Give the backbone structure.
Amino acid sequence: AQSVTQLDSQVPVFEEAPVELRCNYSSSVSVYLFWYVQYPNQGLQLLLKYLSGSTLVKGINGFEAEFNKSQTSFHLRKPSVHISDTAEYFCAVSRKAAGNKLTFGGGTRVLVKP
Amino acid sequence: DVKVTQSSRYLVKRTGEKVFLECVQDMDHENMFWYRQDPGLGLRLIYFSYDVKMKEKGDIPEGYSVSREKKERFSLILESASTNQTSMYLCASSKALGAPYEQYFGPGTRLTVT
């Protein structure tokens, strides 16, 4: 079985400051990795995904994430946040043998302050 | 644009009632999923379906059943609602199992059981 840990449940950050959201996973097999975002009163939408190849993945809205196999991490970063980035962010993994069944982390709520 | 719609945004039911949550997708996706979302726990998979009339249990199927009679529609059924089923329910769809396709989410149904 796999599990996903998001180390911070809430991250307050000032507008135009950088932000990093941490995600660690455990799995005995190779995985695909995802970050989803949930804006207030909406469903989730995909920010970015790592399938293979380059360990640095760029997504929408200026976000990027780095896959670190040795540390089993997939941290999400943005160099300069906007008020509109206020949302909850979910890290998820899928075992390569299991297609696209996802296991989600507990979520990190980002509050961007002016 | 892919669209996943859920029948209600908010629902209030009494303990012991039978509850139906409906989900419809318009992209001819083979896979459909039901999750529940609780603070700090992220999203947990209840059931998924990879074809009409086909279903598999997810991580927390107890107290729930599902129905998929048509490709575009996936229903979640609470046979006898209990207060511990008060939660946000999210439906998602994706292309076929076996590849890391993006899941597209509906806006969610917030169910309160009193």
Summary: Chain B touches chain A at residues 4, 31, 35, 39-45, 48, 58, 90, 92, 94, 96-103, 105-108 (CB under 8 Å). The two ends of chain B are 37 Å apart (CA to CA). DSSP finds no helices and eleven strands in chain B.
